[in-house]
Write a structure and sequence with these properties.
Keywords: Membrane, Transmembrane, Transmembrane helix
Distance between the termini: 64 Å
Helix content: over 70%
Shape: flat
Strand content: under 5%
Radius of gyration: 21 Å
């Protein structure tokens, strides 16, 4: 049985620490559960006849999904550069 210090030294000796496995687990497990919960909530609201409420929440959902997609793929700098190019002419 290894002590905590030995376990930490073993992990550090293996090289760079990354969060790739955690990110993959969240992407593969948590995100689908959240999307399923959102879909059930939207169906429940739509079943009550509040179509305007569903539309408002769907727009917010789309904005959130775009932000989640940018965060998960790591393409934040590229998106920021593209938005900056819309505001500043580089010609």
């Amino acid at each position: 049985m290894k002590t905590s210090l030995e376990a930490i030294q073993l992990v550090l000796a293996q090289g760079e620490l990354t969060t790739v496995n955690l990110r993959d687990w969240i992407t593969n497990n948590i995100v689908p559960l959240i999307l399923l919960a959102i879909a059930v909530i939207l169906l429940w609201i739509g079943g009550r006849g509040d179509n305007a409420g569903v539309a408002r929440r769907s727009i917010g959902l789309l904005v959130g999904l775009v932000a989640l997609g940018i965060a998960v793929t790591g393409s934040g700098p590229a998106v920021g550069q593209a938005l900056a190019n819309l505001l500043v002419s580089t010609g």
